[in-house]
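cron nightly-structures :: item 1 of 1
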Amino acid sequence: MLAFHNAPHNRYPFVNRFPVSGNNPLTEAGQSYMQPGVYYHLDVGREHERIWLAIDGEKIIEAIDPEPLGEGHFSFRIRGTGNEIASCLIRNVKIYSK
């Protein structure tokens, strides 16, 4: 699981092993990079054991997962806060494999 805008929960972008839950991410950025109402180009990738997130062409975080999940599953999880409903705009999604 990769979270890239988690400010409402006082967390920075992170990569966490899923489906194992917990607060011990494989890696976490040292700051927040995204603000509500701003459009960003996101690149999320996995090549073998390497997982990364880039925002507007800048690699923000990278992790090694020694047991990555297999192919065939992809999802978007959009959550609001206690006072706001969740919303986002997703466009030009490209999913490919090498």
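cron nightly-structures :: done
The chain is about 0% helix and 25% strand.
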